[in-house]
Amino acid sequence: MNSTSTLTRQRVDTFRLAVFLTLFAFIAGAAVSLPAQSLPAQDDALRYDQPSAQAPPTAHNTWTKGAPLPTPVVSSTAALFQDQIYVIGGASASNVIVDDVQIYTPGTKKWSTGVPYPTRIEFAGLAVVNNVLYGFGGTSDGVNPTAAVWSYNATTKKWSSKAPLPTARWGTAAVVEKGIIYIIGGGLDASGNGDLATVESYNPSTNTWKEEAPLLVAGSESAAALFGTTIVVADGATNGGGATGENEAYNAVANQWTTLIPDPLSRYGSCFGAISGKLYAAGGANAPTETEAYQFSTNTWASLTAIPQSTIYPASAVYQSQLYCFGGWASWEGSIINNTQIYQP
Predict the structure, then answer these.
(1) Within 13 A of 254's CA, how many CA atoms are on the CB side?
(2) Across residues 269-280, what is the average pLDDT?
(3) Do the strands 230-238 and 110-113 form a parallel or antiparallel pair, or are they unpaired?
(4) Domain ranges in the chain?
(5) CA gap 177, 7 in Å, rounded
(6) What's the pLDDT tens digit per position in 22-67?
(7) Side-chain half-sphere of 331: how many Cα atoms within 13 Å?
(8) What is the CA 65 to chain-centroid distance, rounded?
(9) pLDDT tens, 290-323?
(10) Whole-angstrom Cα distance, residue 49 to residue 175?
């Protein structure tokens, strides 16, 4: 190989090396000058990569507290009306029967005041049909029952008189089946011997009454609820001044009562309501802290977690599958409590 060829090869290699170094410098410089790609902030990463926060699991067979009653009462009555619970009448701590309408909104846990009941009242029966609230019977003096029937229209905010009960009474059970309100049992007086087996049905559309088949066993201040087309009535005060665990089912089509398995605890004046095929009862005379459930499909009773504050003659209602118990006596003719106690099945 001559010197000219060697020199030419060296120049070519030098040129190639220079080109390589120039390209390397260019590429390296471009890589350094590229803007850094943004990464999600840590909270964004959590937002997209982590599962969404969920409500804690429901604690079943438990009791919780709601906002206390503004005016503590015993022997008041409650009904769910337009997503609020109306607690009507009762006797106050000064042993005065009141016409108060105390309205509880479960969603906000706040109380408000409604249009007063037309008369002072306790032990009335309440029912709701076609967005109208009805009140039946009760007593205004603690001695004599009334036959008065009133309806409340939330739009006009007025109470109106309706056809009176054929049989004046207090402590009745009021249950709605296919738009008809059944007024079941009740008492004529406080003698302990005035309890009734009488059943009368009210048709709101015609404002008329009809006599139905009576209870098999007379009683007042019972727990009652509708399961499908069957009305179940359990417990109650009975003639002779005692309590019963009598449990009966009413078929409105056949106008007939049949006997069910009785409540192991004889009681009356409890907090009660139907939830998912079961009739729940808490507190009441003879069992002021006991909670039970009657399952209609199996005709059986079960004992549950005791109500925290003993109560007799509270008002009660069901809202979103929870049982609400308002006020009552802490013991027989004892202090009147303002508790709102809520049971989660």
Answers:
(1) 9
(2) 98
(3) unpaired
(4) 62-344
(5) 113
(6) 433 333 443 333 333 333 333 333 333 344 457 678 999 999 999 9
(7) 1
(8) 13
(9) 999 999 999 999 999 999 999 999 999 999 999 9
(10) 52
Q: CB of 294 within 8 A of CB of 263? A: yes
User: Where do we find the tokens 């087996």?
Assistant: 197
Q: What's the pLDDT at 56?
A: 77
- End-to-end Cα spacing for the chain: 103
CB distance 114 to 101 below 8 Å? yes
- For residue range 131-160, what is the model confidence (pLDDT) as tens digits? 999 999 999 999 999 999 999 999 999 999
Q: Which residues pair with 227 in a beta bridge?
A: 230
Distance of CA 287 to the CA centre of its chain: 21
Is pLDDT of 211 > 50? Answer: yes
Three state DSSP letters for 18-68? HHHHHHHHHHHHHHHHCCCCCCCCHHHHHHHHCCCCCCCCCCCCEEEECCC
Radius of gyration of the chain (CA): 35
Burial class (CB in 10 A: 0-12, 13-18, 19+), 86: buried
Quick one: pLDDT at residue 55? Answer: 66
CA diameter of the chain: 141
Residue 202: phi, psi to the nearest 5? -115, 130
Listed residue (270, 268, 266) closest to 326, CA to CA: 270
CATH number of the domain located at residue range(s) 62-344 in this protein = 2.120.10.80
Q: State the Cα–Cα distance between residues 345 and 323, nearest whole angstrom.
A: 8
Per-residue three-class SS string for the chain = CCHHHHHHHHHHHHHHHHHHHHHHHHHHHHHHHCCCCCCCCHHHHHHHHCCCCCCCCCCCCEEEECCCCCCCCECCEEEEECCEEEEECCECCCCCECCCEEEEECCCCEEEECCCCCCCCECCEEEEECCEEEEECCECCCCCECCCEEEEECCCCEEEEECCCCCCCECCEEEEECCEEEEECCECCCCCCCECCCEEEEECCCCEEEEECCCCCCCECCEEEEECCEEEEEEEEECCCEEEEEEEEEECCCCEEEECCCCCCCCECCEEEEECCEEEEECCECCCCCEEEEECCCCEEEEECCCCCCCECCEEEEECCEEEEECCECCCCCCECCCEEEEEC
In one-letter notation, the amino acid at residue 31 is A
